[in-house]
Amino acid sequence: MTVTLLNYLPMYQYEDHVDISPEQLLQKVTQEQIFEFILGLPFSFTDRYISPLRIDTKPGCRFEQREDGTILFVDFGDPFKTHRTCFAMVMEKHEVTLTRAINMIVQYYKLSGDKMDYEPTPDHPLPLYLEAPTNNTKITYTKAMYSRRDKKFWNQFCISEDDLLEDKVFVTSRVTIHKRGGKPFTFRPATPCYVIDFIDAVKIYQPYSTKYKWITNCDSEHVGNFDNLPPEGREVMIASGYKDHRVLRNMLGASSKIGRERTGVVWFQNEGCIPAMYILESLAKRFDVITIFYDSDLAGVRAARKLQKVFNAIRSNCCRMVFIPRSQVIYNRYGYYLKDPGMYVHKEGRQEFSKILNQIL
Fold it and tell me: How far apart are CA 296 and CA 299, in angstroms?
């Protein structure tokens, strides 16, 4: 399934249906051109701009480019979102969906259906990570230094401080929640407390809190480690959370037998999360096999089956599910135990989990 393109005509009439996805559009129009469309000014990495998304009179916004080629519009004067892609800019400026945003870009540059045939080029071998429209809540935080307690907590899952810094996971001592139209609410979180920073959204993790273990303004389109995937590969694995994803990355990289066959690991916001179709299509097109590695309990199995059906509808038989064998899972009065990679490594160790991986992969 791709985004259905309806050429945008006066009086909101539509004709000439063409199937096109965001990555296909970027084969014909550059990110720079889309930014020029929304700003009405020439694109430059050195110039400063006025934001078209808020009341702004002083040029202070700029562009920056990620290592994967994504160009971001940076506006530190916006209290709700500081970094936006070209598609997010069009969606927010005109308050439209991604499909309508593509319609407007195509009409502006007068691209006809025959020009939209997909022709991969070395300049744009993979789709860029697209951001959803800004939500009404911004979360800011104060960084703190990693303590012995923090290192001990993560070391039990064989996750190092270098891993955390690479993944933009920080210790935080103060969190402020800003809701549009309301007063900011600041609190000191439970200790320990960590923040996973997605640039335009964050996820607060309080592992020992019984009431608010997770606080976030992320949505389903915030897919962890998506930007670091290779352009293509044999297999990508999907985990249901950050911890399991990092455990799998470390374990698969450490085992040459397994590591040769694995090309990437990503994580979704939770097991019930199904990201936007363009993200799922990107994974299905770029990787031969998609492996879902969710928890071995009933909820995890149900969520994996649901996600597998979506992937296999995109490309037949491209997706499979794996779980820690039920013979290894313990059930007690607290629920299922040893059901996920993080907990298994914590209790049984890396060597035993490596045996599990060689058994199921």
Answer: 8
* Residue-wise pLDDT tens digits, 177-235: 887 667 888 988 888 999 999 988 899 999 988 778 889 988 888 999 998 888 888 99
Number of domains in the chain: 3
**From CA 202, how far away is CA 164, in angstroms rounded?**
14
**Beta strand 169-179 pairing with 185-187:** antiparallel
- Rounded to whole angstroms, the Cα distance separating 112 from 107 reads 8
Model-level pTM greater than 0.85? no
In a domain, 130, yes or no: no
Q: Are 18 and 83 in the same domain?
A: yes
Classify strands 194-197 and 335-337 as parallel, antiparallel or unpaired: unpaired
Phi, psi of 84 (to 5 degrees): -140, 145
Assess whether 244 and 353 both reside in one domain: yes
Token pair for 97: 């969906």
Name the β-bridge partners of 125: none
Q: Are residues 210 and 264 in the same domain?
A: no
Query: What pLDDT, on a 0 to 100 scale, did the predictor assign at position 81?
Result: 81
| CB-CB neighbours of 359 under 10 Å | 11
253 and 340 co-located in one domain: yes
Domain residues for 318? 226-360
Dihedral sign, Cα of residue 229, residue 231, residue 233, residue 235: positive
